[in-house]
Specification:
Shape: rod-shaped
Protein name: Dido1 protein
Number of domains: 2
Radius of gyration: 41 Å
Number of helices: 4
Oligomer: single chain
Number of strands: 0
Length: 139
Amino acid sequence: RRRRRARRRRTMRRAKRMTRAKKTAKAKKIVRARTMTRAKRGMKARMIRAKAKSRAKRTRKARMIKARTRTRAKKIFLARMIRARAMTRAKKMIKARRMRTRRRTSQRRLLRARRMLRARTMMTRMMRMIRMIRAKWWV
């Protein structure tokens, strides 16, 4: 019996809750009421509206969470995922491109250095050859 009573109480409590529209209507009624001062009316109405707003926000959040499992929301979710994946891929591509250019510049530098070295060795070899010929000419 106790359990049944508890269940009834719970359903009652749920029934007591008001929707946002009803709450705003109540706030309007309070604003129109003439039994209290203007400040108090405003405060009460504001409180009711704020409560209604927060409740609406909460229910909206809950609805969103529920909707995540539904097909439309699933599609949106999937689309978002795909977009995110594409973004990461694009980022990776940009990074790779940057790396490539950097590598190219470093490669160029290396090639230039190598060329310079080769030229220098050739020059020294030529100089040595000339020197040798000269030495031989003196003999």
